Amino acid sequence: xEEEREKRRTSVTIYNQQYTIVGEESSEQVExxxxxxxxxxxxxxxxxxxxxxxxxxxxxxxxxxxxxxxLLKKLEDEKKDED
Length: 83
Hints:
By secondary structure, the protein is α+β, with helices and mostly antiparallel strands. Helix content is 61%, strand content 17%. It contains two helices and two strands. The protein has helices at residues 27-47, 53-82, and strands at residues 8-14, 17-23. Strands 1-2 form a two-stranded antiparallel sheet. A hairpin with a 2-residue loop joins β1 and β2 (17-23). The longest helix is centred in the C-terminal third of the chain and has 30 residues, at 53-82. The radius of gyration is 17 Å and the shape is flat.
């Protein structure tokens, strides 16, 4: 039987909205993620002041997804170079 890990509740603020995140990750990890998202949203809003919050959230997700896929590709390329 799989051991159940302890769930933590962490309150964060992202783009002036309060959220309670429940998960197994440490509070520090959740806060770091929230800070990343908050900064990205504020930066994108500075460059696109007419975006509504829904479009801003989607654009933020696209940017973070792109950053993630870029890092994955870089890691895969480095692994291929090692082989």
